[in-house]
Amino acid sequence: MTMHGTLANEAVLLHHRPDGLPTPDCFEAVSQSLPALGDGKVRCRTHYISLDPYIRSVIAGNHMGHGIGPGEVVPGETVAEVVASHHPDWPEGTQVRCPGGWQQFSDHLPEALHRLPTGLSRPSLALSVLGMPGLTAFAGMHRLGEVASGDTVVVPAAVGGVGALAGQLGRLAGARTIAITSGEEKCRIAVEELGYSACIDRARDDVAAALSELAPDGVSLYFDLVGDPLLTTVSQQLAVGGRVILCGLMGDYNGAQKTTGPPPGLWIGKRATVKGLVVYDFEHERLEFERRYTPLVEDGSIRANEECHPGLSSAPDAFCRLMRGENTGKVVVELAQAAAS
Amino acid sequence: MTMHGTLANEAVLLHHRPDGLPTPDCFEAVSQSLPALGDGKVRCRTHYISLDPYIRSVIAGNHMGHGIGPGEVVPGETVAEVVASHHPDWPEGTQVRCPGGWQQFSDHLPEALHRLPTGLSRPSLALSVLGMPGLTAFAGMHRLGEVASGDTVVVPAAVGGVGALAGQLGRLAGARTIAITSGEEKCRIAVEELGYSACIDRARDDVAAALSELAPDGVSLYFDLVGDPLLTTVSQQLAVGGRVILCGLMGDYNGAQKTTGPPPGLWIGKRATVKGLVVYDFEHERLEFERRYTPLVEDGSIRANEECHPGLSSAPDAFCRLMRGENTGKVVVELAQAAAS
User: Fold this and answer.
1) How confident is the prediction for chain A on average, in pLDDT?
2) What angle do CA A308, B268, B138 make, to 5 degrees?
3) What confidence tens digit (pLDDT) does each residue in A53-108 have?
4) Rounded distance between C-alpha atoms, residue A125 and residue B91, angstroms
5) Contact map slice: B 270-289 vs A, CB within 8 A
6) Domain A8-128+305-334: what homologous superfamily?
């Protein structure tokens, strides 16, 4: 590999769209040659790739009206290093966040590049607790949910990329926080590492009964990351005047059909306020979010709960695990860095 | 009939619970003798009875945890006159609003009695545009919906008790208002009498296509009074950031099952804010509501759209029409007043 000749670019493409839960054979590893770097463009070498559930709908072709098809590189946000540049603002060696996708190298116009927060002990944080999942948690808990002391907050997918910070933001705001996840190990992480007040194991517990016991006065804020059937179950346990943040739909991502929602009469009776969250709307708050939370992550007040997989070839398996709900934290893939560049 | 001997009280009882749409045979007219008036109680003679969709769930036994069974007088809010009193604050001749139900006479403790708004040209207004349906419209449009100039508002059941005022409040706030109702006559009432900007006839028009045409920039406020399938159809036509007030569920009232709601992904994509409305929460605003809107109703700025049925015996038929959506306004029943009392 040389920076000046034709570069080989290891990449993972979508082979075919998944039917239901994705399997590794939906993806295909290839080696492609990189073209010459275009005018004004910047070439980045991927260091970390963020794997996120919304990619499931991107590869289905229907993520908010966008998507990719077979033969295209699987997209994803990355932390990368500039290795060649035709733009003076982005010199070689700069660490950036960019939509690099599942590949070693990616070329971008400067508007697609973002500098990392300053003071990060490891760059992957810019993809997890201080990145898009973190900003999602912040927007949901603070901007839409207006979490406050006295709230009883419920977070499903509680140890995942968004959930892990949502729970911690609730705790830091003085709320009682109840995790919902599956399996003993994830329940342990939720309570011991992430500081939830309690955890419900949906693989084993009766969620409704557990909520009745843990939140006898009702749930005042539910940060929905998964849709039904949990959405309806938790909505039935809302306090009067409870809030619901609609943010994710694990069932829809994997399925062919859009799931229906809870009976509206449920939300009428609870006088609920329900808000749809799309993190892109909060991009203008990202710098302030990074400035405010980087010190809290670095001093350990907030735990960055990452599950890191080594090598680009681990991406398909790691993504399939994520979509089966088996991840124990925000999923990132770390690419080996060339000894010399 | 005498005020001092045993009084005959004509009443309509629930005969059996309806299965689906109610039919007149679900009700039974009887003549009962009134007991002596209890200590501290006030006897009222019914003048007008309000018929409202929520009564359908009351006679099903499941209105927000309450209900009645066969053999009981069908409940309902009434305008009545005090004809005997054991309480000095409520002398004979006082006009009151009270939960009198479908009967000629009803006895109440003073806490169940309310004075009518002052300045009413006809007392039934206290059951319609200046009563509970009116307060519901006010709470939904102003308190939860925060309607404002520039809004595009959609109101289903547009000429009914709640809808008729909701549409007018939208217009008075400077919003563009789109009615949804069924049939030519109700569409005429919506536009010509109630001042909606436009009306969609759901019996004839393709509602989605009509909304696309009438609201090309999307619906910013939907005051839902009927549930699905209209709720999903209109939600698909929401503007980004649109608001939905969940207030009524015509389908649920008549059916045995609770309907599911729209796919949550729809509300996520629209960044919708959805709020459940129960009018009882706004009882503390009623006096101010009456004070503010009585002059507007009396000077004709707001039209009171009532459908008045003569005689207690008309109540079952009128209620069944209401539950089939055939009413052309807020449904009230007017009882003949005795020549001498």
Assistant:
1) 93
2) 145
3) 999 999 998 877 789 999 999 999 999 999 999 999 999 999 999 999 999 999 99
4) 75
5) 270-278, 281
6) Medium-chain alcohol dehydrogenases, catalytic domain (3.90.180.10)
